[in-house]
Amino acid sequence: MGWTVRDIPDLTGRTAVVTGANSGLGFVTARELARRGAQVVLACRSEQRGRAALDRLLAEVPEANAELRRLDLADLESVRTFAGSWGTDRLDVLVNNAGLMAVPYTRTADGFETQFGVNHLGHFALTGLLLDRLLATPGARVITVSSLMHWLGNIDIRDVNSERRYRRWLAYGRSKTANLLFTHELARRAEAAGAGLLAAAAHPGYAATELQTKGPRMAGAAAQERVAGLLNRLVASPAETGAAPTLYAATAPDVRPDSFTGPGAVSRWRLHGGPHDSWRAPWTRDDAVSRRLWAASEELTGVRPAL
User: How many domains does the chain have?
Assistant: First the structure.
């Protein structure tokens, strides 16, 4: 039998941050880490929804050590406030989970195209601002949730904010490519610095979450929203299955730097099964492009991770 959440080791004494933990994959990830003894911070944009998620988590895992902190990845001021409030506490696991998929063109508070701004730049800044705590914690990990849909497009370093032409699915694919390039570069820099930090990525396959319906809802496309909801019921795996690769990457002892973990089997149009090494596009391991994206991300966010 392959790996399951029952194989998560005892995490007592460890601390984890999960972005977007108010629902879907993020909620399941936070819940299972807390179930195994970790102190878990639910980093959520909406305090109301975050509070409801925390109440639900404590109802399902009464012994959990969990708390809610506000984090809006579409606002770098919020990211800085979140990181600045961390103080000198240890940080064992940072799960960069929150994201948007195929939403209409909008901009973040700092003027970035929203999918690139939230999915990549917000997490880049958050990781950079928390990096001193991660580096000070032996065996710390940064796990970034990407997607198989990264194959839709390589990053265009000359137009990261899609100012020339915006196509929502292409922008989503590029933001997920950015997640993998970020992981690749973070792993490379950690190794070069001799740091004990593990950077890896994961994807859920096709899991039933709010991602599929939020984009059509924001666009006012009711028919598309209904179709997405129907596909979630008929085709998608449950969030518990989709979160397993992330939980594996965050806790399993044999995870390799710059690995990309996803569901390990396909049947009846479902990606399911225990976590397994996943295919990734060759451009997501391009050293030159990952360095250029890192430099561009530093310039855009003003955050320069100390590695």
Answer: 1
Instruction: Determine contact, residues 248/198, Cβ cutoff 8 Å.
Output: no
Q: Residue 267: enclosing H or E segment and its boundaries?
A: strand 260-267
- pTM, two decimals, is 0.90
Q: Are 58 and 98 in contact (CB under 8 A)?
A: no
Q: What is the pLDDT of residues 99-109, one digit of tens each?
A: 999 899 999 99
Tens digits of residue pLDDT in 76-107:
999 999 999 998 889 999 999 999 998 999 99
pLDDT at residue 231 is higher than 50: no
Distance CA 22, CA 214 (A): 15
Look up 172 and say whether it is catalytic. yes
CA 42 to chain centre: 13
**Residues shown for the chain:** 307
Q: Of these residues, 105, 166, 172, 206, which one is catalytic?
A: 172
Instruction: Kindly state whether residue 149 falls inside one of the protein's structural domains.
Output: yes
- Measured CA to CA in angstroms, residue 219 lies from 103, 105, 117, 206 at distances of 7, 9, 19, 22
Q: What is the domain-level CATH number for residue 55?
A: 3.40.50.720
Nearest C-alpha neighbor of 43 from the set 122, 108, 155? 122
